[in-house]
Specification:
Blueprint lengths: L2 H17 L4 H4 L48 E4 L19 E4 L2 E4 L4 E4 L2 E4 L5 E3 L2 E5 L2 E5 L2 E3 L1
Antiparallel strand pairs: 1-8, 2-5, 3-4, 6-9, 7-8
């Protein structure tokens, strides 16, 4: 048998199979139609845009009030003992041109002389500083406290 003779029965067999509907094998290589798969994901979290505005605290203002000047006649204190010698003080630089140096003085506390160191005070317009002083009277010492006078 030659090739042609062999090929005729094979072709006839294939044609009969196709004609009878057994050609399903031919379609077996075709993939089935794909089903649509819908995947739903939860929505992304909402992004909150928050703008925080902080108000700075109000500025702190220091109010320094000069107490009212009340002219008081200084009280005299009579002491039997003489005050110690006045101390020498180093005067520091003034905090401002509106300050005046009040020199230190010996103060009678009722039993002893106590040193009060000098310090600066704000100048009081229309007044001048009268420093503490002592006056000898009849064998005693009269102590007159420092004060603002006109």
């Amino acid at each position: 048998m030659n090739r042609l003779q062999l090929s005729v029965p094979v072709i006839a067999c294939l044609a009969s199979l196709y004609a009878t509907g057994c050609a399903a094998e031919v379609h077996a290589n075709v993939p089935p139609p794909r089903a649509e798969v819908v995947v739903t994901a939860p929505p992304p979290p909402a992004v909150k845009s928050e703008i925080v505005v902080t108000t700075p605290p109000p500025p702190q203002v220091a109010v320094v009030a000069t107490p009212p000047v009340v002219e008081v006649v200084p009280q005299e204190v009579v002491v039997k003992t003489q005050p110690p010698v006045e101390r020498v003080e180093v005067i520091p630089v003034a905090p401002s041109p509106q300050h005046v140096w009040i020199k230190g003085w010996w103060h009678w506390d009722g039993g002893n002389w106590v040193w009060n160191p000098g310090h600066y005070e704000v100048v009081r317009v229309g007044y001048h500083w009268v420093p503490a002083h002592y006056a000898a009277r009849g064998g005693a010492w009269v102590y007159i406290a420092g004060h603002w006078g006109r």
